[in-house]
Write a structure and sequence with these properties.
Elements (H helix, E strand, L loop, with lengths): L1 H43 L6 H21 L5 H18 L6 H27 L6 H26 L3 E3 L3 E5 H22 L5 H29 L14 H26 L1
Antiparallel strand pairs: 1-2
Helix pairs in contact: 1-2, 1-4, 2-3, 2-4, 3-4, 4-8, 5-6, 5-7, 5-8, 6-7, 7-8
């Protein structure tokens, strides 16, 4: 079921890109981000007794900020500071009747992390599509994470001996992690050879290592959230894979480094 659902998802993405190009991928990723917002709030605030706050207010707030961030022409530091402050203000008022200040502070921290995780990081991933070679950079982002995950899974299955972090993810091993880096490097070298051979390969190798590290960190971060919430998966939308966050955690964390690399690399191409 896991392989089948992954195959269907990949075919669907290629079909959408074939018919709608970057715009289609943009809208699909936006929908995925909205689902990720819902999943995060259900995980982070599973101890909130008020279901209206957990299932409606916070997801709608996150979706609103995502759309404002995507379509507002203003993208200065002041703009992001305002959005974050607005986000936290809503959280403070929503939890104004909590029993302890410590619980309120913890909830505000979860809210700030959620803003970063489910609003800012998806925007960084989507911004790669706005670049001149946006479709290729976005493909690079996906393949770095996908190849890293695939190599890590099979490498760990075959050679895994030493646990990397038993508390966070008991199945992950040091050997699997090293294979994951190899997979990310393979993806980068292939994309470089096909599309960017005019640029220095060493910079792309650096990108593969760094983005691979960020992607694996995102995987551990998502595992931490699920451990705290005492659940196995972030959702059930993808059979055999869990939720959207279970699939895109690495993509979200790797997106800033890929975007910054791509943005600066295109300066040498034009």
């Amino acid at each position: 079921m896991r392989v089948f659902s992954a195959t269907i998802a990949i075919i669907a993405l290629f079909a959408i890109y074939n018919y709608f190009a970057n715009r289609g991928i943009f809208y699909v990723c936006t929908v995925a981000s909205l689902i990720a917002i819902i999943e995060y709030n259900q995980l982070a605030f599973n101890d909130v007794p008020n279901k209206w706050i957990k299932h409606f207010l916070f997801p709608v707030l996150g979706a609103l900020l995502l759309f404002i961030s995507l379509y507002s022409p203003q993208k200065s530091t002041e703009f992001w500071a305002f959005l974050l402050c607005f986000y936290l203000c809503i959280y403070i008022w929503a939890f104004s009747n909590v029993k302890t200040n410590e619980w309120l502070f913890l909830s505000l921290t979860k809210g700030a992390i959620g803003f970063f995780y489910t609003v800012l990081l998806p925007i960084m991933a989507l911004k790669t599509l706005d670049l001149h070679y946006g479709n290729i950079w976005f493909l690079l982002l996906l393949t770095i994470v996908l190849c890293g995950d695939t190599f890590a899974y099979f490498g760990g299955l075959k050679f895994g001996r030493r646990k990397l972090s038993p508390q966070l993810s008991p199945q992950k091993t040091l050997e699997g992690s090293l294979f994951g880096f190899i997979g990310s490097l393979v993806a980068v070298v292939i994309i470089w050879y096909l599309h960017f051979s005019d640029l220095n390969l060493l910079w792309f190798i650096f990108l593969g290592i760094t983005a691979g590290l960020f992607a694996q960190t995102g995987d551990f971060f998502e595992s931490l959230i699920k451990r705290i919430a005492n659940v196995k998966d972030s959702g059930r939308i993808m059979p055999g894979h869990g939720g959207i966050l279970d699939r895109i955690d690495g993509v979200l964390f790797a997106s800033p480094i890929v975007y910054l690399f791509a943005f600066n690399a295109e300066k040498f191409l034009f």
